Amino acid sequence: MTSENTLYFVPDSVKQKRRWVTDYVSTLDPETEYEKIMSIIAMYQQDEASMQLFIASSAVHVLMPAYGAEPVLFTNNYIRRPNQRNQNTLTFFWTWFGKGPSSAEGIEATKRLNHLHQRIAKHLPGHFEFDSDYIYTLACFTTIQNRLLKRLGLPELDPVIKKATYKFFAEICKHIRKGSDTPVEGYPDSFEACEEYCEKWERWDHRMSVPQQDLIKAFMDQWVAASFPPALEFIGNWIIYFTIPDHILKHYRLKPTKGFGRFFARNILKLAFIFKSKFAKDQKIPFIERRKQLSKAVLNKLDAKSRERADKAGWTKGGHEAVYVTKGGHSISACPVMHGNFDKQRLPPELLAKLEKVTENGRVEYEEFAENDEFKPVV
């Protein structure tokens, strides 16, 4: 029985219709009741699978800078234990959505996240100090669904949802602390400003490192393996690749889905959004009360395949051995886990010259990569 004191409490009398959430949310004020709006949508219209896709796709966006990916590589958790790591991440989000980011539980969850970042920052000084990285991450969470809807040619989110989503993640930003325990400054002032910020940030000359590709694939592989049987994993790959804009995939030297795969992914996602927004039945019991977390034994079994794949690639451990770019290495000159075994001879000379052109601030110029450039790391 849901307590009347919970953020997502809704009287049973309101839940009589098959689709009741949209009507109920329209009665709430996004300026002041944004946490309740987001909680109700998450609790009664979302599930673990959709949240997993949200996290995996968002991660590929936010880890574009090489130095931004290095803390994840340092811990090595997502390479070797993606299912355990994913469940832990989902717990943060379900706490924020279930309790609200301004609640005692929500603030405590953010404090735990800050503490985790600050612990890693002791080993990687400077990696958690850029306001822009935190801003982009939260702005990405805010806008990623709306941006995908536009790419699919579907109507954008309702203005009430846009406002509530913006204020929800802006509230989280108030409690985020950088590695030096200082607040994040300069967060955009609207949903539209968040979209502008994301588009601008993604076009910055972010530096890419070879290990990033392994990391990004680990995020995507985890969602695919959790959502599709082995024989149909190729469909999962089509779908998740489509959720990532082409310019971001190219940053990681990954080929966007093309041809029939792109056509299929676009249309299956389009149909899924239409079904979800028009026909899917809204739940009567909040998801947080239905959620079943997997035991460590089950997670360990699920992660066995990831560990096997990691062992073959040389990802036996993280630590400073996995941190390469900011330790003085070049973005493409070596793979740390293979002890510098990167075969430059497999790259065309003209592409190698482009890859080695680095700006004064140490980042490769993104604009130097042409549409037909291809890059295949050897690890």
Describe this protein's structure.
Helix 2 (34-45) crosses helix 9, helix 8 (131-151) runs antiparallel to helix 9 (159-175) and helix 8 (131-151) crosses helix 10. The chain has one domain. The chain contains 18 helices and no strands. It has helices at residues 21-25, 34-45, 48-62, 66-75, 77-80, 82-99, 104-123, 131-151, 159-175, 191-202, 210-227, 233-242, 246-251, 259-278, 287-290, 296-302, 304-313, 349-355.
- Please report the total strand number as a whole number: 0
> SSE string, helix = H, strand = E?
HHHHHHHHHHHHHHHHHH
The coarse silhouette is: globular
Distance between the termini: 53 Å
The biggest sheet amounts to: none
Roughly how many Å is the radius of gyration?
Answer: 21 Å
Assembly context of the chains: single chain
Overall pLDDT score:
83
Helix share bin:
55-70%
| Class from helix and strand fractions | mainly alpha
Instruction: Determine the strand fraction and express it as a percent band.
Output: under 5%
Count of spatially separate domains: 1
* Weakly predicted, low-confidence segments: 325-379
Q: Number of helix segments? A: 18
Task: Describe what is shown at a glance.
With 379 residues, the chain is mainly alpha-helical.
Task: Provide key terms for this protein.
mainly alpha, globular, 379 residues, single chain
Fold topology:
Elements: H1 21-25, H2 34-45, H3 48-62, H4 66-75, H5 77-80, H6 82-99, H7 104-123, H8 131-151, H9 159-175, H10 191-202, H11 210-227, H12 233-242, H13 246-251, H14 259-278, H15 287-290, H16 296-302, H17 304-313, H18 349-355
